[in-house]
Specification:
The protein is of the alpha+beta class. The strands form 3 sheets. Strands 1-5-2 form a 3-stranded antiparallel beta sheet. It has a two-stranded antiparallel ribbon with strand order 3-4. The chain has a two-stranded antiparallel ribbon with strand order 6-7.
Amino acid sequence: MEKLFSYGTLQLETVQKETFGRLLTGSKDILLGYVLSEIQIKDKDVIAKSGTDIHPILKYTGNNSDQVEGTVFQITKEELAQADDYEVDEYTRVKGNFQSGASAWIYAGQSDR
């Protein structure tokens, strides 16, 4: 199993059903060292699934007092690949560290990390 942190549209039930074919299970956690920003995306499929062209995006600061709340989901390796397909090119997948002590995959801005 893999751990994937969502702070945005992957928390939406409609996006989970469209992307993974099921609702995900997870737990709330807080990502350390990042702040939230926004981007405008152009991918029509992602806009259709999420219902918006404005999506949140993580920006790395390295300061543990900068924190982002979200959910850490338990997913399979295959579902992680599906999440990679869902995310647009402006995002890159890296490991993040959490207040709980956990480590999980996150999607952050490409210029970060």
